[in-house]
Amino acid sequence: MSSVEARKGRHRQRYENNLRLVSGCIPYRLSKEEKDQSGEKENCIEVLMISSPNRDDLVFPKGGWEDDETVLQAASREALEEAGVKGTLNENPLGFWEFRSKSTQNICSLEGGCKGYMFALEVTEELESWPEQNNRYRKWLKIEEAFRLCRYEWMRMALNEFLIVMAEDEKLPAMEDLVESPSPPVVEVAGCQMMTSIRKAVPDVVAECQIMTSNCCAKPSSGQHHGLNAISPYPLGICLSRGCL
Fold it and tell me: Cα-flanking dihedrals φ and ψ of residue 158, to 5°?
């Protein structure tokens, strides 16, 4: 049993414009995998997802950002409490996304609204026991499978931003291996336009597929991503190269 206890309650919870502030991360690890029969190996990335309590879907570690910690400390704490991992956190956020808590489904109400910041966490230690292990299991996944298992649009958008950061850090194949995609479609959703381009500010159709009508936007990281637009069988121009991921 873990000697560290998970924080409970929301008496220290931060809020901004009626939105509960949330911090989380995409934990990942690097590995080598043979790319062909020659036996030559190349970098591959796996990400860690965890189960939701009393549900079958998988999510990334995240939780409330409290008033006695920084957003980075909150992301690291949630990774430890929910997934039982420690590591090196990239201090540049992947972006932030506004979504509705799964416990609140009234689309006409601002109650239950969240603003979540996501980061990349390179895992250096996996604990055998952790605070929430009785309620959650963890699973390492190839990027391809992680996209398939993401239940919510905001998770796929965060994972897409994560891939761009990994490519820029040269932890993925070179950018010239990625193919530019055609212009994405624009669709009308509950009065908001949603564009499936990762480099545009797009309305966020997230968390239980509900839109917050007053805040239907997603904000990827403001860092330089070289105007990357990529194409794959996955949403939002996901970058997958050589079948490695």
Answer: -65, -40
